[in-house]
Amino acid sequence: MTPALGVCYYPEHWPEDVWQDDATRMVDAGLTWVRIGEFAWSRLEPSPGDLQFDWLDKAIDVLGGAGLRVVLGTPTATPPRWMLTKHPDMLAADADGRPRKFGSRRHYCFSHQGYIAECRRVVTLLAERYGHNPHVQAWQIDNEYGCHDTTLSYSPAAQDAFRDWCAQRYQSPDALNRAWGNVFWSMDYADFDEIDLPNLAVTEPNPAHVMAFRRFSSEQVVRFNRAQAEILRRHTDAPLIHNYMGRVLDFDHFDVGADLDIASWDSYPIGFLSDRLDAPEDHKLRFLRQGDPDCQAFHHDLYRAVGRGRWWVMEQQPGPVNWAPWNPAPLPGMARLWAWEAFAHGAEAVCYFRWRQAPFAQEQQHAGLLRPDSADAPALAEACQVAQEMEDLETAQSRAPVAIIFDYASAWAWETQPQGADFHYFNLVFDMYKSLRRLGLSVDILPPDTDAAANYRLVLAPGLATLPDRLMQALSDPTHTSLIGPRSNAKTEEMSIPAPLPPNIPGLDARVSLVESLPPGANIPVGAGHIHKWFEHLEGKAERLVSTAEGQPVVVHANNCFYLAGWPDGDLAAELLSRLCQQAGVETTPLPEGLRVRDTATHRFYFNYNAAPVTHQGRTIPAAGVHWEDL
Amino acid sequence: MTPALGVCYYPEHWPEDVWQDDATRMVDAGLTWVRIGEFAWSRLEPSPGDLQFDWLDKAIDVLGGAGLRVVLGTPTATPPRWMLTKHPDMLAADADGRPRKFGSRRHYCFSHQGYIAECRRVVTLLAERYGHNPHVQAWQIDNEYGCHDTTLSYSPAAQDAFRDWCAQRYQSPDALNRAWGNVFWSMDYADFDEIDLPNLAVTEPNPAHVMAFRRFSSEQVVRFNRAQAEILRRHTDAPLIHNYMGRVLDFDHFDVGADLDIASWDSYPIGFLSDRLDAPEDHKLRFLRQGDPDCQAFHHDLYRAVGRGRWWVMEQQPGPVNWAPWNPAPLPGMARLWAWEAFAHGAEAVCYFRWRQAPFAQEQQHAGLLRPDSADAPALAEACQVAQEMEDLETAQSRAPVAIIFDYASAWAWETQPQGADFHYFNLVFDMYKSLRRLGLSVDILPPDTDAAANYRLVLAPGLATLPDRLMQALSDPTHTSLIGPRSNAKTEEMSIPAPLPPNIPGLDARVSLVESLPPGANIPVGAGHIHKWFEHLEGKAERLVSTAEGQPVVVHANNCFYLAGWPDGDLAAELLSRLCQQAGVETTPLPEGLRVRDTATHRFYFNYNAAPVTHQGRTIPAAGVHWEDL
Amino acid sequence: MTPALGVCYYPEHWPEDVWQDDATRMVDAGLTWVRIGEFAWSRLEPSPGDLQFDWLDKAIDVLGGAGLRVVLGTPTATPPRWMLTKHPDMLAADADGRPRKFGSRRHYCFSHQGYIAECRRVVTLLAERYGHNPHVQAWQIDNEYGCHDTTLSYSPAAQDAFRDWCAQRYQSPDALNRAWGNVFWSMDYADFDEIDLPNLAVTEPNPAHVMAFRRFSSEQVVRFNRAQAEILRRHTDAPLIHNYMGRVLDFDHFDVGADLDIASWDSYPIGFLSDRLDAPEDHKLRFLRQGDPDCQAFHHDLYRAVGRGRWWVMEQQPGPVNWAPWNPAPLPGMARLWAWEAFAHGAEAVCYFRWRQAPFAQEQQHAGLLRPDSADAPALAEACQVAQEMEDLETAQSRAPVAIIFDYASAWAWETQPQGADFHYFNLVFDMYKSLRRLGLSVDILPPDTDAAANYRLVLAPGLATLPDRLMQALSDPTHTSLIGPRSNAKTEEMSIPAPLPPNIPGLDARVSLVESLPPGANIPVGAGHIHKWFEHLEGKAERLVSTAEGQPVVVHANNCFYLAGWPDGDLAAELLSRLCQQAGVETTPLPEGLRVRDTATHRFYFNYNAAPVTHQGRTIPAAGVHWEDL
Questions:
Q1: Calpha distance B448→A236 (Å, rounded)
Q2: Which CATH code is given to the segment(s) C402-584?
Q3: pTM of the full predicted structure?
Q4: Which residues bind Zn(2+) per the record (chains A, B, C) (predicted)?
Q5: Active site residue B194
Q6: pLDDT, tens digit, 9 for 90 and up, residues A220-232
Q7: In the annotation, is A341 catalytic?
Q8: C395 pLDDT above the threshold of 90
Q9: Are B358 and C97 a contacting pair at CB < 8 A?
Q10: Per-residue pLDDT at C1
């Protein structure tokens, strides 16, 4: 499939008489896809049962007629106000038990059966009407699951559903008590109906209780999504998509993705660097108008895995947004760079969000390709340039030499029991990813149940709370190189310490006898860098690769299977990963700061995230510039 | 009217047998006014209908008999505990929906009709009894509206009243939906009774919704105050006063002030610098025992406008207070300096708070003119000195050469939608005010509906969300100099982006094509300083006065009407305002740090806020000193 | 009594068939005591009335049979889930009014009569069964009162009880109104049932109201504990113990201790330094794996006073814990050092917490003497070493030359009314204690109602809100040296400013005319150091010992009774206390950083808290080392 550009559009926001002109301008700009409809429920059904689909018919006609391919969104992220009158208890509740009220979006609890039935109803109506419409060439279900911390709900509906879930999973209260270790602090239950949600306890609740609630909450998202997917499948052959967010880990995207055809995500590089990434202030200032040089690539690679190869950017930042603490404008060139980077990572489509900046409501300060007065915003010209450049370039994806395992359940495990205040699973994986990328590598991301690990020269599995048997087999296979740890295989599925002690790698005589979390400033010198944040004391006779300056083991191994007993800083990670790459026969090229590389089957792409030109091996790439060469 | 000193006194706190002695000492100290009664409801009406006015009769007799002029407060800021039994739902609710309980003060919701009726009842009783008492020469209504964040209430009473307010303002739900842009995210309402207050939404509520709630909340204060003013007018000719607070912006003081005769405010320079002003730590330490050199003057000038020329300091800090995070003592001399500064800005009266430090309850660590053991506190001697000095000095106010527009609704707009985390309207205006004062200027403050703008050589309108037509006319009049912006005329009354794009100044070909908010450290070099926090990209052919180092326009103009496209730091503001003053024919004299000047019709006053003497143009003014010269 | 080592054990966590082996290993390690049972209610009474004591019988048999002495805990800190079904309103409520739910521990309100009756019932059953069991040689009542901020409850049960308490204390609403100064802000009550708890008020509630609630809350803990103690006394002669926590000040430990025979506390040096002590980051990093050099000693001395000479460490940290923000491992040697330090301060027993690390539930990352796989954890060998060393060393306690008064009510007073944001009573006393210890001194701690003050050469009474008459008598006795202040005798029992003004020391002509709290950076130079945080202006003719650089009095005195008018930093405190010690004939020896000394009747002990060896007067003490010499 040839990749394409697109845009998000809200016909219901504008007078009908501008739709045609908008459509023409989109096509003229080189756009192919247009996503519509995902927040329009109050205009499709202004009161219960009063269906008003005519305007949508017409909008699809106009857009499709102009040559655009329509992605139609189901509107279930924004139930109308009357839904609350019908289902007053459908709201999610926050951890303080307060209902999360109407007035913005995502105001529903994933466990509310009445609301799920309403979603089924409206999706059935849409699928029946548009499932075979030739212009509707893809469907988006709901919008940004989990955004605004909406995965976890502490509502009565969630409590009921969680009790049922526990009953199904554990079958008897005794089995649950044993699994969770409820003998500790007399937390035994005699009946599933005694189990509350793990909020507002006097002090820390049982981590097994929290972890069960986290698994349950993720599964509720999967079920909610599946209810719509099943209906759509009956009426359409067009691919089903969801638009995920950046650094939202509260539900298992691989599980949701299994019911869909394409993964997509909403990429806001500047907002994410400011609001969602943990980075030093000087890094945030250096890349203020560009975004973090690895954040987009990481999510591209992650969602490529979630989509089993098929993925989009459904929303691409085109200018300043409205929702970060501060909202600077992208450097000239970034709207082009971001799109090219997505294509280099295999995106089938990149849709800018949104066509015309809305002068009203929550996102009125969110830029579009057009200004509110319909004049071109700066990103429009860059989109046009990308569209033209794409005509001359054909490429295809290839497997990366290196892979990292990414596991949502591990994020929940370490959030449940960080043991050190700054132990964030995302940061641990992202640090490793960044270090690989600074060595000039392309990286694939794999789910924990992957059967592809053996296809890579080097596989990393940092912080994987529970290592599935099949993966352990693959990683400990002596014919490939792998790096496990830190804090890998450290918990059972029920969030307890396994016996024998971790990491329990076949053939590796090493046990974690003690763990330490370390505050900022308490760094342990190792080679060219330090261990910080987390350090494990190892015992056993496994051969050492790396030790601390004081002689404690840091990396041990059996053949090509390495175990890392702490969280390396950038310098140590660079040193260690270089060595492992060499061992694995993976060629590395350390890159200047802010420059990144991505290899496809045919080309090597360079992306300069700096605000100044950078020269590397004779090439000079301008500020915010993209460069590609045949491989 | 000759200005005078006064004091706040609580006869109900002390045995009757000390009243006479207190009154005599007040008179001996040179005090003229005494404010009483504003928290005494539980002693005036210990149980419902059981009126106990005898003690107040006597207190007024004693004080008035000693020659003091009494300001009588209505006691509605502190309803007695039995009021809650009668009206259990009268409490305000915080943004979390929790009732704000009895046990301190201001425990009422401005929208509760039952409580308003009780206020009418008690004020009628007081007005009937004391409206013609010759000693009662002024009335204070309630106390410090909005203090402790009490303007906004999320109670059921507020919700009902807000729905009525919406119904009156918009007439139909459809009109409201259109005005707010509720099509966005399916937020349409079919009935006014569906509208909730904008709290506890899943994410950001519609800014138009919030802004409507802010306007409503301000109007509720106006109505509450008016209910009392109307009753008092029927029974007395004495002037009506309210004592406003420092940096409380949640209601429109101009609107409340329109129903009153005199504006007054409660000036706590040291507490405000520590607790309410945003300033670097070194600034806070430098002026630790003096207060910010501009904060008092700013509020004096603001409340002079609110009082349409008539204003007081109703409460003047005399020593350490109890409510700031830290509470140091004023430098010797400050209790005098503050009083003189108020008189130089036109105060009719300055009343110290309070006569004798109470040894009990919340403010027991709040200094008075007397200590709890009735010995003189340090400020008493300074008050005596001021009283003596006033006998020798007569002065009168005159118009300042420069004015700044101050608009409460703009504070709400930018609080509703800051777009940058540190975009505070107060700080923007105050930065401009400070820069003018550092140039040695006296400044007037004007409301946005002023018709006096044309009387000034230079008028500034920074951050004015919506420029009223009349004001725009005056500011763009080529015969006067004005500086508009940044972020001026950037929103409609309904909190959307106007068409055409801002600033839309007649005759000025400039449009804001893009806005950026900038985090700390992301400064844009301009001339002698920088733009920080906020920067607007301008397009159009307007003539430039100032550009960034990279060549983007910062100040453009048509004739004498200038538009400023960013938030200047101190250095840039000084450079820019010097230039505009020169252009406008306003003479400037840069002052040493901590020294400030105020011109009256007859004198130039110097105030040294430093803890060390300062020399300026041959004059040496001692630490915490005041100096005046004939003009 | 010869001191002994012990351990905390949970037979209910492990299969019965390992109990015997565990017991044997305990005895082999040199342990004497084993504490059991304190969280086992759900296994003792799985459903209401279904008593299952067999397993406990057997566990006591096995442990006692192996030669161990059993401490049996009452299980009232962890009521089973069915208790909530019986008493749904038994939960405490937090300051926001939210019930603090089941799911961890300490989920009860001290004021709930129904739950207290349940506690009486279960304790009666236990006492009847084990009161004369020869293996049960001590009893622990409940567990860590006040931990997780559980002393204060804002539940309906607490509200009812508080009203009764007020009625009993004040007898009439008028008396209460007078005592609290409720005339201020019309806060008068007409009926005790009108009194709410002092939470969720609009702004600061009356400090007298808060202070009454604090006294009430403390007394509820005393009563709760006494209810169990009275029952146990009827059935056993074994000593009664409670295990207090570090830096928990919410209830009066002296009052609880009066009903018990032995005080004990739970000592987690590394967790406390990280989580509960206020100290600069570099200090926290320096002692990261050792704990603060004075924190343990301070609590040892405090609980020796609470236990009237008899005290234990009931839980001793053996390795990394799970509950601090970061959890590093102790340096090798610290598990020995901590135990020896406790014995040097007079502990009768030191019990490590816990025997075997549990692989499940909340504390699965909390180290024990055994690892989860039953292998020895590092601390076990250190415990063995201590056990062996104890056989060769006999010592006895002696009175220290210096004492400090410690008063829980003062902690409440200054928390109620800090006046400066960093005015913490604990820190003030601890600063003084640290300064004495750095001078090489052993220190005793005394309660405010002590009659032993006259036995010390020097007594300090910093921050004592209300000085009891008897203590004032002793401190102002010219035959001994005392240091009173700052902020001593500054409040009445009802939290108002006393008349005459403080400190009101017999024979000392000094009054606090004004107080200042000072933010960080606002230091007042005095001698070799500074006053920071708090400074009092003194008037009167008392002789001065120390003045500020500007000449204000800092220390005044009459004979040997000194009053200190500010909070000294470390340098000033060292200078001042050296001088007072000299005056009092107390010999001082300034110690190197991290080295501390404790004298018993027979030996001088040295404890090196540094991570490196330290040499002092010819002795070199290794890192984390202990050294003792005959005196």
A1: 58
A2: 3.40.50.880
A3: 0.98
A4: 109
A5: no
A6: 999 999 999 999 9
A7: no
A8: no
A9: no
A10: 57
